[in-house]
Write a structure and sequence with these properties.
The chain has about 375 residues and is an alpha/beta fold. The chain is built from 14 helices and 14 strands. Among the domains are: about 55 residues, 434 Repressor (Amino-terminal Domain) (Orthogonal Bundle); about 140 residues, 3-Layer(aba) Sandwich (Rossmann fold). Helix 12 links the parallel strand 10 and strand 11. The protein starts with 6 loop residues before the first strand and ends in a 10-residue tail after the last strand.
């Protein structure tokens, strides 16, 4: 016999069964008070019991939030964005002008905020979440009508739980969950075009790619584009980036130091996985007395405003970051209006910005 039936409600005209604390308690074989303690004070519950409760909640799609239960009967008027904290202190402190200091994540957030406001929604941002995925489900998912998540931020199994309660859109990276809406930019194509430009138009053959960490899907897609262009040009095709690092200015500076410490003939060009790393690389080369582009060419990827103002201006692949955020909102709202429509995957085009850091005298 069930302790308490799941609450029946209607969301956008569809009848849904909303799991309750009673359902979780029955599934886990514990009291309601124990379930409550797991979420209020998990350290006060034995690990074995805690894992059993959290597993039952995950299986049922339970979100322990009064706001989440209210979601079954009314819209919250809020959309969510889950983003890792890509804060780059060097970039943020280098500029007094807020526009110039805008980074990749800032641009996407701005795009989502503008689109959400146009449709009468607010935006809730969750960055660098503590407490793991259970904290995400408990504290964030129950407060919003739909959720945009940067690829690689939340494990797939936890996204599946969230998606039972609300639309989920995956941002960036390759499409990993077929039944989720998904949006990305042409990372592979953009990096391949940039590499071809350096080889064909500037005659460069000794190239070094500075990649992101292996769990960064965008950085990995760019590296694959680089490899494809090297293969086309008959150049050595590396299996791994020459250096890896986090996508920050500090890591770009350290990458330059590592590349030059190796001895032998230095690379003619350093291709960085994003603009923040490339800016750090430019600063490091200047301190070392190397001229860009005369001694070494430097390129980036993203098109953040800082790349236009630094000297020499940064050659990069410009992606539509704000549009990425805007399109994420549109996909969420389409899913809210038509829950059963087929999953949609959108790939936004990128453009090559030829500037002085590669030897092009183009703005």
């Amino acid at each position: 016999m069930r302790l308490h039936p799941g609450v029946q409600a209607r969301v956008d005209g569809f009848s849904v069964s909303v799991p309750t604390v009673y359902d979780v308690a029955e599934r886990a074989g514990v009291s309601i008070a124990t379930v409550s303690r797991v979420y209020r004070n998990p350290d006060a519950v034995r690990a074995q019991t805690r894992d059993r409760v959290l597993g039952a909640a995950r299986d049922l799609g339970y979100v322990p939030s009064g706001s989440a239960r209210g979601l079954a009967s009314r819209s919250t008027g809020v959309l969510g964005l889950c983003f890792p904290d890509y804060a780059d202190p060097e970039a943020e402190n280098a500029q007094d002008d807020d526009v110039e200091a805008m980074l990749y994540s800032d641009e996407i957030i701005r795009g989502m905020e503008r689109a959400a406001r146009r449709h009468g929604y607010a935006l809730l941002i969750a960055a660098s979440l503590s407490g793991g995925p259970e904290g995400l489900v408990a504290k964030v998912a129950g407060l919003v009508d739909g959720f945009a998540v940067l690829a690689g931020t939340v494990p797939a199994e936890d996204l599946e739980v969230i998606s039972r309660r609300m639309p989920v859109v995956m941002l960036a990276g390759p499409r990993e969950i077929d039944h989720f809406d998904h949006i990305e930019v042409a990372n592979f194509d953009g990096q391949a075009e940039l590499t071809r430009h350096l080889v064909k138009d500037h005659g460069l053959t000794r190239l070094a790619f500075v990649g992101g960490m292996a769990d960064s899907p965008d950085a990995e897609a760019r590296f694959q584009g680089y490899r494809a262009a090297c293969r086309e040009a008959g150049l050595p095709v590396p299996s791994l980036p020459d250096v890896r690092g986090k996508l920050t200015q500090t890591e770009g500076r350290l990458a330059v130091e590592r590349l030059l410490e190796r001895g032998g003939r230095p690379p003619q060009a350093m291709l960085f996985a994003n603009d923040q790393m490339a800016v750090g690389g430019l600063h490091a080369l200047e301190r070392l007395g190397l001229r860009v582009p005369d001694d070494v060419v430097v390129t980036g990827f993203d098109g953040i405003p800082l790349g236009r103002t630094i000297r020499p201006a940064l050659t990069t692949v410009r992606q539509p970051m704000r549009r990425l955020g805007e399109e994420a909102v549109e996909l969420l709202l389409k899913r809210l209006r038509t829950p059963d429509r087929a999953p949609e995957s959108v790939i936004l085009p990128v453009t090559l910005a030829r500037r002085a850091s590669c030897g092009c005298n183009v703005a």
